[in-house]
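Incident log, support desk, overnight shift.

02:14 A customer reports that sequence design results differ from what the structure should imply. Their input is reproduced verbatim below. On-call engineer (initials T.W.) acknowledged and began investigating.
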């Protein structure tokens, strides 16, 4: 009995020693840290658009908040396009000229499109916005040329980590939802 007790104690001490050595080894290799800045609604209409038309950066006052981040993501709460017609049943619709995208691209790596204003000027304007974002090399998530693309994650690697980001909306109108063959946003539905 005494031999069994000593063996169990030695085994327990051995396990603790192994765990301590493993922890020490892991402590010497720090875990990667990725800093992420998520900005809420980026509304470029009104004051920001007036600043842009004067050649001023509407994000200048907050640029320092984004500067050191590994990933910078904001919700683009307007459609950026030159085409389309305003949704007749919506009291507030927002469309801005593409000239503002250079400022968005300067401060953000990607924008979320799954919101209640991305479709304010219809699918034609939404499709133009997708093209304009790609031309600026500005990633987007939560929207796409079809249902499959709208639900694809934005995948980015930083500090040796691979990160997938998704964006969904549940805020009406649902008419902005992408379809199998129509551009639009990603609607939050469990089946999808």
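02:41 Re-run completed on a clean worker. Output:
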């Amino acid at each position: 009995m005494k031999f069994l007790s000593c063996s169990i104690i030695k085994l327990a001490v051995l396990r603790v020693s192994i765990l301590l050595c493993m922890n020490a080894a892991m402590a010497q290799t720090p875990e990667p840290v990725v800093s992420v800045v998520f900005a809420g609604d980026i509304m470029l209409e009104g004051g920001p658009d007036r600043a842009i038309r004067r050649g001023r950066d509407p994000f200048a006052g907050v640029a320092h908040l984004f500067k050191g981040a590994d990933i910078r993501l904001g919700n683009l709460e307007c459609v950026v396009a030159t085409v389309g017609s305003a949704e007749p049943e919506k009291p507030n619709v927002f469309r801005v000229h593409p000239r503002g995208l250079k400022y968005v691209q300067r401060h953000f790596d990607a924008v979320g499109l799954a919101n209640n204003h991305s479709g304010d000027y219809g699918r034609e304007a939404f499709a133009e916005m997708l093209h304009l974002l790609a031309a600026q090399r500005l990633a987007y998530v939560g929207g796409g040329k079809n249902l499959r693309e709208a639900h694809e994650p934005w995948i980015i690697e930083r500090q040796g980590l691979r990160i997938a980001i998704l964006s969904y909306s549940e805020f009406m109108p649902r008419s902005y939802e992408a379809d199998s063959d129509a551009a639009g946003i990603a609607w939050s539905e469990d089946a999808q």
